[in-house]
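Board work, copied verbatim: Beta-glucosidase
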Amino acid sequence: MPESATPVTPVTFPPAFLWGAATSAYQIEGAVREDGRTPSIWDTFSHTPGKTAGGDNGDIAVDHYHRYRDDVALMKDLGLGAYRFSVSWTRVQPTGRGPAVQRGLDFYRRLVDELLAAGIKPALTLYHWDLPQELEDAGGWPERDTAHRFAEYAQIVGEALGDRVEQWITLNEPWCAAFLGYASGVHAPGRTDPAAALRAAHHLNLAHGLGTAALRSVMPARNSVAISLNTSVVRPLSQNPADLAAAQKIDDLSGGIFHGPILHGAYPQSLLEATASVTDWSYVQDGDLGQIRQPIDAICLNYYTPTVVSAADADSRAPRADGHGASDHSPWPAADDVAFHQPPGERTEMGWSVDPTGLHELIMRYNREAPGLPLYISENGAAYDDKPGADGSVHDPDRVAYLNGHLTAVRQAIADGADVRGYYLWSLLDNFEWAYGYEKRFGAVYVDYATQQRTPKSSALWYGRAARTGALPPLDAVE
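↓ predict structure ↓
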């Protein structure tokens, strides 16, 4: 090193910080007709022509149902300390009602036992968008009964696995389930009714509250119950009042609609007023808000990119650049007066801006919203056009840089006083990326979909080194 060079101070994390990776059931498991499993809304949606890229579906996905032992061994080799997975509701309750199918629960028992034997902490998400089709046929999330069905399902899984799984997440990104599923229709079940989407959001909140109470009734007190939110980091294009009002509207629809009742026992008044043209909120019954505001043990945050908005130009016909898929129907009820803007700079394969400052901003916001509650980053990652080289290795320096930048933002938030306990990289494996099919690769581990061969990318090796040492390696540490 030249005498004038200054050594780089390593970015180190607290010793107890949890280093994990995340997946979801429909995206990786496959085996959709085995051991009693029946169709979820994503089975139906992905088999509907025109709904997914290339007509892709999760019938096989990356065959994790049969390869979970190899996948756990891979996590152990990388040095991961935690694994966040989701349970397929229809594996456990094929109709969304009634007693459990033990063969379905047995898969998750085996998975959890394998993780614990490998020294990997399991974190279980109960709902990652795969509603039983029979419940959708009965009305889905816009119907109140679905929240009660979820509570019964939560109790079943809590009774089966609560002795071995300490970290529980009720719902993953209820915003996507409500608004992409029932307003824009780009996700299952593909409905386009903004009033139904707002009802769905309330009933997802109610499901969280009822599910939390159900888990508490059957699990040891030591277990942690949380929810994963993907609240947008909303930035106005300018500071003029119209743009600030647009930002407030989107912030309410992405965040306040969930953390308002969950953390504070009330929906934001500005949300109720802004959506009055769509719904009167009469489905919020006496006692609902108290039920939703169950004590929780942590807040889990999913972050990918910030959102930039302004008041819409009445003459503008530009496509909606909100990063949530193409549809003639907006996922933002009563927000046709808001325009979305693509930030400048580097983008991922999804077209999403790379901006670690947004993650720091999100963490600090929830540090204020929920003082005293630990925080976890339950998803963060990027899609890039990864391809194996001539020697079979997969180098993805863009993802390494992405992870380095965002983990540095997490460490800065910790230094600024936020109680961030862990980080789950999205995703462990390349997989079925919802409506994008198999076109977008978020995995730190490359999957050859024809052979199901797994190859850790440079990012997996880099992240594994960080997990083992508690410090961010140099960007070129594994090239």
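The CA atoms of residues 241 and 311 lie 9 Å apart.
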